[in-house]
What we know:
The protein is mainly α. It contains 11 helices and 2 strands. Residues 239-252 form the CCHC-type domain.
Amino acid sequence: xxxxxxSTQLEQVPLLEGPSGYMKWKQKMEDWLGLYGYGKLISExxxxxxxxxxxxxxxxxxxxxxxxxxxxxxxxAIRSRCGLNAREELKGVNRVDVALSRLKSRFQPKxxxxxxxxxxxxxxxxxxxCKSVSEFAEKLRTARNEIHLLDETCKISEPxxxxxxxxxxxxxxxxxxxxxxxxxxxIPERDAQNGITKDAVTFDEAVIAAEKEEQRQRFSEKxxxxxxxxxxxxxxxxxxxxxxxxxxxDQCWELHPELKAPALAEKAARRRKRGELKSKRNERx
Length: 285
């Protein structure tokens, strides 16, 4: 069962085809290695185990065999998520740490051009491009991590990161944002001795709050749709002047032609608003 789960999760790691996909591949590949017991092969267990004091031959050989088997399985997992070019780089390699080092040397993006591209991806991402708040948050995390992997000088601070998420929610969250900014701090509050007296809001806390607002808005929209359906089922009024249904004598355009233009303008505005809401719902489904 565990092997099946590991195999399923491994298939979620994208194939490494070139530099453009390296950052995401590295993150997901190392996450998988750590999750399924191969993480120490990257740093602590990079060389064959040495004999311990008072260890007999069988015990030592068992540890060596276990280490070699883990290296083989870990390397095979890495190779399975590599495209043709990446596999060429792994010829003659049989250790996890060496395989990752080779691929990093060959495919990790470098220089100002890739920084500009990753920064553009990070700064332009908004909720409107995603199906939900949780997806937006996950994509923003990935974009930030890709920038961090470039160089230690590219670190994005937590306050900047939280604010970037909040400003990317869009106009539909303006009321929520006003309340959120009033009740939370993006940077910690300190006393005269520079000790923190009130913590800053974390990214996860901001995401949870935005998800609750998302659910509230969806529930509100659903209630409005249900109310509209109920209203449609009610008996329509009848005009005694022109004999048509849908309006009364006081609202009849034949009797009161001055009412026609404002009514048509209001109807067009409602139709336009419904179209915008429907379009946004379709984008998020």
